Amino acid sequence: MEQYDLWKLDKKLQKEVDEDRYHHTLGVMFTAASMAMVWGGDLEKARVAGLLHDCAKCIPNKKKITMCEKNKIEITEFERNNPFLIHAKLGAFLAKDKYKVEDPEILSAITWHTTGKEDMTLLEKIIYIADYIEPARNKAPHLTRLRKLAFTDIDECMYEILKDSMAYLSENPKTMDPMTEQAYQFYEALHRERTAKEEA
C-alpha cells in the first residue's frame, strides 16, 4: 500500500487553510482515526482523508468554480448555485494533484464527505461522520447521542445525521442537495429494515 508522509502533508495544508479550518481538520483526522480503530478500517487512509477532506475549503467560491472549469471537474447546476458544496469535489482533485494522493478510496471519501451518498464505503462513512461530530463541533442537535453511535452503530449514526441534516436543509429547500436526499432515503430504508427485524 502507498505510504504517506502525514506530517509533510500537514505542513503543506497549514499554508492553504485558516487557523479555525486547520483545527477543525485535526479534529476530523483524530476522530476518523479513532473510528477506524473501532470499525477495523485502514488507519492511515482514515488519517490522510481526515487531514485533507477540507483542503479546498478556504478557496473563494468564484475561484472554486473557475478551478473546476479549468480542470474539467464536472459540477452540477445546483453546485454552481451553491458553491460551498464544491470544496469536496475540488478537494479530491487537489488531494491528487497537489498532495499526490492516488488512493481512490481516500479520494472518494473526500468527494462525499459533505453530501453523503447511497451505500457508502466504511472509509466514506467514517469521514462523513467524523466531519460532523469532531470535538470542536457544537451547533448540531443530538451531538452527544451521535458521538456515541459513531462508535457503536455506524449505519444508525449515518441515518441520524442525515435525518438531522434533512430537517435543517428543509427549512431552506434551495440548499437541499439531491445527493443528500438520496443518501437519507438509503439509510432510512436500512434503518426501517433493521427495526422491522428487531420487532419481528
Describe this structure in words.
The protein is mainly alpha-helical and 200 residues long. It has a domain at 6-140: Hypothetical protein af1432 (Orthogonal Bundle), CATH 1.10.3210. Helix content is 66%, strand content 0%. The protein contains eleven helices and no strands. The chain has helices spanning 6-14, 19-39, 43-52, 61-70, 77-81, 86-97, 104-111, 122-133, 143-149, 154-169, 178-199. It is globular. The mean pLDDT is 94.
> What is the number of strand segments?
0
What's the alpha carbon Rg, rounded to whole Å?
Answer: 17 Å
> What is the H-and-E element order?
HHHHHHHHHHH
Average pLDDT number = 94
Structural class: mainly alpha
Number of alpha- plus pi-helical segments = 11
Shape: globular
CATH class value of one domain = Mainly Alpha
| CATH fold category name of one domain | Hypothetical protein af1432
Unreliable sequence segments: none
CATH architecture of one domain: Orthogonal Bundle
Quaternary state of this entry equals: single chain
Helix amount = 55-70%
Characterize the main sheet.
Answer: none
What amount of the residues lies in strands? under 5%
- End-to-end separation in angstroms reads 44 Å
* The CATH fourth-level homologous superfamily of one domain: Hypothetical protein af1432
Please sum up the structure shown.
The chain has 200 residues and is mainly alpha-helical. It contains 11 helices and no strands. 66% of the residues lie in helices and 0% in strands.
List the helices and strands and how they pair.
Elements: H1 6-14, H2 19-39, H3 43-52, H4 61-70, H5 77-81, H6 86-97, H7 104-111, H8 122-133, H9 143-149, H10 154-169, H11 178-199
